[in-house]
Amino acid sequence: MDNPVVIRVAEVAQSVGVATLRFNFRGVGTSSGKHGGGEAEQEDVRAALDALAERLPEASSIGLAGYSFGALVATRVAAATDLPALALVAPPLGMYDPDFLTQVPGPTLLVTGSRDQYCPVEALGRLGQRLGATVEVIEGAEHFFFGKLFPLGEAVERWLRRWAV
User: Fold this and answer.
1) CB hemisphere CA count around 61 (13 angstroms)
2) How many angstroms separate the CA atoms of 160 and 165, rounded?
3) Alpha-carbon distance 110 to 132, whole Å?
4) CA distances from 1 to 20, 24, 72, 149 (A)
5) pLDDT at residue number 147
6) Do β-strands 134-138 and 108-113 pair in parallel, antiparallel, or remain unpaired?
7) Cα dihedral sign for 1, 137, 146, 91?
8) Which of 63, 82, 132, 141 could bridge to 148 as Cys pair (CB 3.0-4.6 Å)?
9) Sign of CA dihedral 10, 11, 12, 15
10) What are 67's strand-pairing partners?
């Protein structure tokens, strides 16, 4: 939750009036528990979504954003729920194929850097085409978006303004 990419996405969301909740998966930082290989972490996401829903007005829409491993977990949660929006930042498509994610109920953003070693641009493009998603490629950025957090934020903001505002 203290990763610069995660912080930037949350800052941008807050700047356009979207409530955010950042959290660590089990076993990360000072969180209790052990890493669950992506399966147990889905429970963490569902619990976070429930906690956020309890604190927001009843008619609020809740979307889900995930970065890297968090994007992998977010795809699994999104495939089993009816979230109105999904943002995946640098999903590690070079390490897994989310073929189980065949549709999403609402607007979806897929964003990566042109030099991302874990998220090949071509794989992201294929996923975006399959889902009818918005695909953004940040020129010159690698997986950690060093020196490219501002363009990442711009891409997220453009997408957020289409569904959240």
Assistant:
1) 15
2) 7
3) 10
4) 11, 5, 15, 16
5) 97
6) parallel
7) positive
8) 141
9) positive
10) 89
Name the packing angle between helices 4-15 and 149-163 (round to 10°): 40
Q: Do 119 and 112 meet the contact criterion of CB atoms below 8 Å apart? A: yes
pLDDT of res. 165: 66
Q: Which residues contact 9 (CB under 8 A, 6 or more apart)?
A: 65, 67, 87, 89, 152, 153, 156
* Rounded Cα distance, 134 and 88, in Å: 10
Average of pLDDT values for 83-109? Answer: 87
Largest CA distance in the chain: 41
Which residue type does 46 have? Answer: R
State the pLDDT at residue 119. Answer: 96
Enter the CATH code of domain 4-163. 3.40.50.1820
Contacts of 152 (CB under 8 A, 6+ apart): 5, 8, 9, 89, 111, 138, 141, 145
Among the listed residues 85, 148, 87, the one whose alpha carbon sits nearest the alpha carbon of residue 116: 148
CB 56 within 8 A of CB 48: no
